[in-house]
Design a protein that fits this description.
CATH architecture of the largest domain: 3-Layer(aba) Sandwich
CATH topology of the largest domain: Rossmann fold
Shape: rod-shaped
Strand content: 5-15%
Helix content: 40-55%
Distance between the termini: 35 Å
Number of strands: 12
Largest sheet: 8 strands, mixed
Strand order of the largest sheet: 5-12-11-6-10-7-9-8
Amino acid sequence: MELQRYVRLFVRWSWLIVLAAVIGGAISYYVSTDPFTVYESETTITIGNVINDPNPNAQEMSLGRQLAETYTYHIQTQDMLNNTIVALDLPLTPETMRERIETRTVTGTALMVIVARDPDPDIAAKMSDGLADQLILASPTNLSESEQQQIDVAHEQIDAIQIELQDLRDRRETLDELIVSTRDSDEIARLSVQRDLLVDQINVATSNIAQFTNSIVAIENRTNELSIVEHARTTKLEIGLSRSNSAILGALVGIALAIAGILIMEYLDKTIKSTDDAARELNIPVLGAVTRFGRRRDDYPDRLIVKNPALAEQLESYRSIRMNLLLSRNESSNGIYVVTSAGPGEGKSVTSANLATAISLSGLRVLLIDADIRNPTLHKIFELENEEGLSTLITLDPDDLGDIDSDSDDEAPLPEALKALVHAASLPGFWVMPAGQLRSRKSGPQGLAELSEILTDQRGSARLRKWIEIIRKAYDIDIVMLDTPPTLLVADSIMLGVSLEAEVVLVVDGKNTRREAAKKTTMQFEQLGIEIKGMVMNRANVHEESYYYKMPKNYYLSNGLSHQEKETDQKHRDELEQTSLSQ
């Protein structure tokens, strides 16, 4: 269900999604430029001599990595950039060069990579190698004068000791030959002593050479030494998208923004949009939905489904609502319905008029009462005078009429004063009672409030209930429908529902009714034990209704039926429906 809801949502806003895609694609196409070529050069530097050490320690490796991170920042300093530009005579400023270079370290190593980009491959290579050279010059890689002197002295000592060591080795070989050739034991002993002394001297000389060599290595091998392990390596890059790809990307961005906007609007929109929303939020039966019809400037009579042949779809919708309403009747139902809405302007009166008309078309006898005394509308829809009506009726006492014989002729039991309150509509078996003009000692809102009190207080409601019984007997009425004020504005609909033991039909506007308002309305009726028979979705959006079936244009005429034959066909089908209901 959620998937269907989102599908309908995006179908409803498909025009906006398409428009956003077109605008986004067009803007991207016209502002984009063709891709251009850039060359990227990389020079790799190592910090320290760990890579040449056969047995490096962990401390040196860790220090090398820390120094590499430090040099990545040092290389972008103003002095370093200026020195490189001057040394290579580059046609750049330090700011421009800083924008074209970047540095990074190879994770887990003491290697640092200098990356330079430029439309000219030679300049890109010069920048990366030149920065590496300047970094090495600025680092303690080169030996100081005192360190170089120490190394020179050590080399001189090593050379002198090696000469002396060679002489000692020659003398030892000579003694070895003498010892082999001599037969005198005393002479051999003497020569052996000399040989041992030479061996000791040779060992001392060898040890001195090793010490001087270690001193040289200690001076030359330092952790903070920089060296280039790979000179500039240049590759070709294509920067940017083609215009067609930019247009596609812009269209996708436009679609994404449109969808995000739609979801935000849907989240912020607290109105009930479909019958599915109403069933889920209100937990009451859905009698049906009627799509928007007519124009805002149309007169009320033009909104009657029987007066406008173009409203075939709406007529079928009201027939479906009528069927659902009548099928839901039970033995305890007294045939009295209160039609209300949560707030004003939700199509309650037009729905009441058309639903009552649809019920009348089925062969049932209907009385439609305009109980919205504050804002009467039914007289405008049926083009009736509003001088007399419900406001007159509730001021009369039924007891003053005496007993009325309900078995006599239909209209005979009613006095002329009452007959003037009930108007026959254009259909047989259909009567309308308008609200009537103000009949109160007070004028304005106070007078309306007084009439409302008379209508809904215990005495007035009992009087109205008795009047309805009298009129039903007189005209053989099957269904009584009251168009009442919005529930959240005044309590008339609730009081009438209680006093008349009526069932409630709630009208929900598919554009304006807010969820919280509709919930509050249903809660007020439920708390008093008044049954809400169902909900009618007025001005429903076709795209929001998953079950909606669109009637063919000129449906009846396409079947060869005239307007008069249409009514006959309608009556025949309604009779069949009434027969099925009675069964």
